[in-house]
Amino acid sequence: MSRGGDRVGEGYQLAVRIFSVLIIGFGLAILVVTLARGGGPTATGILFGILFTALGAGRLYLSLRG
């Protein structure tokens, strides 16, 4: 790959990592807000918060591993 292509690939990986951390942050925020408003263990906010956090963490793990 050319030198310019390497920079594009590095920029892509950086963007993926940044968005992964943002998704984790959104998931944690959803969890905190749901719990603060008295949501129980089966509340939709809890389920979505766990889902967002898990998806962001999984994507970050795959990005760092590869």
Low-confidence stretches: none
Biggest sheet character: none
How many discrete domains? 1
Mean pLDDT: 92
Number of helices, counting only DSSP H or I runs of 4 residues or more: 2
Give a verbal description of the structure.
It is a single chain. The chain is 85% helix and 0% strand. The protein contains two helices and no strands. It has 66 residues and is an all-alpha fold. It is elongated and about 55 Å long. The mean pLDDT is 92. It has one domain (3-65). The two termini are 17 Å apart.
Question: Which helices and strands appear, and what pairs or packs with what?
Answer:
Elements: H1 3-36, H2 44-65
Helix pairs in contact: 1-2
Give me some keywords for this one.
single chain, 66 residues, mainly alpha, 0% strand, elongated
Provide a quick synopsis of the model:
With 66 residues, the chain is mainly α. It has one domain.
